[in-house]
Amino acid sequence: MDRKPEVHGHVPSGSDINTKGDVAAQVVGTEAHAYDPSVERRIVRKIDLWVIPFLWFGYGLVYYDKAILGGASIFGMIDDLELRVVVDASVDPPVTSTQRLSWASSIFYFGMLAGVIPMTYAFQRFHLSRIIGAAVVLWGLCCMSTALVTDHQGLYVQRFFLGFLESIMPTAFMVIVSSFYTQREQTWRQCLWYSATGAWTIIGAGFNYAFAGINSGALERWQYLYIMAGSLTVLYGLCFFIFPQTPYAAFFLRGDEKTISMERLRASHMGVRCNTIKWDQIREALTDPKVYLISLMMGLAYTVNGAVSAFGPLIVRTFGYDPFTALLWQMPLGAVCLVTTLGAGYASLLFKNIRLLMLIFCSLPVIAGCALIWRSPWSAGGAAPLAGYTLIGFFAPVTSLIVSLGMANVAGNSKKSFMASATFVMYCVGNIVGPFWVRTEQVAEQYPRVWKGIIGSYAVLVAVAVLLGWMLRRENKRREAMVLDEKEGERCAFGDLTDRENLWFRYAY
Fold first, then answer.
1. Is residue 8 part of a domain?
2. Which of 30-44, 50-64, 465-479 has the least mean pLDDT?
């Protein structure tokens, strides 16, 4: 007779679940309850209607106030704030450098790095909507203060604090989606709010183009952009105070819908929310290889954004376009980001465990686009480099899939928060590195450093994705071979166990 595989893992006592576990255990208990699938579908529609648009608009503001820098740089900010310096005056024309602009872009992410730990602790430990709402209002005020800056040193200080305040948003949004949706639903919903990257590239280009036409008033054109973006952000922050912490607290759900909204999450074994910081989960995350691999993938993927968000319009201008046209040519890039992100997310609903395959597939156009820009002749109105620039938009589904992989493959609220923070740290690293690959003194050589850097990053990214897929599939097979009590699995679902502790948890790839 075959011997059953030995089961390793932690099964908490009932008291552990009630005192240290997820808030869902206090609502639905430790035993599974049947519910009407039609009611569940109605609940999901309501959550989609209220939560996703709210997150989409918020992340659009996160993306737009960074992308303003690229538009503002070609409409006076560089000269007004002394962001361009002459490095060789012996030639005609003099050789100039925009390293100060690179620092202005990158120092924002140093602020994010400084803020990620205290901000993540705050929304994990305290009332989520109040903490985020207050941070967003302060972020909006900080954004508007850019109009008061008079030199590059002042811009550096303003950008650092702007990044510090914004650091709460991406990690909070990742955790919010994992608290409202099942594991299978998450990729599509993460992609929905993340698609704001593409949509707001289009919207932002339109705003930048419109404001660039202002020729009157006491302020410069780029200053009006920051005042407008900051005002929208303050209004959004005030609205965030009514955002529900959990599905059970959602004002748009009624009666049994609140209970079912929690019960339906049991099968994913991912939990909803636990305000207790559990240091054993943090220690486990520090020894979990997939935390490092997923975070590394995010850093590699975001080198593109670091370069394009700050220098995109400047790069397109070197293709032979005037400043106004260079702004409008950000729209096709945004459209590619939008469509491909939504397509990748929807495909995850149709096909199980397709995330990593889609990630690899979407990485290839980014590599091809960089190669096309690098090796094509840059002439007035040249189509080839512009086509390559547009192909770079495939980075958006790559990064959204990485976000989904991070949140779908960890359990335990403290560990999820750590995973979100680790992913976000590497997001910052990629955004810090990217701008320094753009050397304006190398424009005659068509910026070879940035294209080589991105191609190399995405080649490594593909290799890491293959390794991660192999690891997750192997662990799932090991767990499938075990004989586990399903009733015990139901009891543990809301025990705030990690994915390692809970052997009923299955990894998604």
1. no
2. 30-44
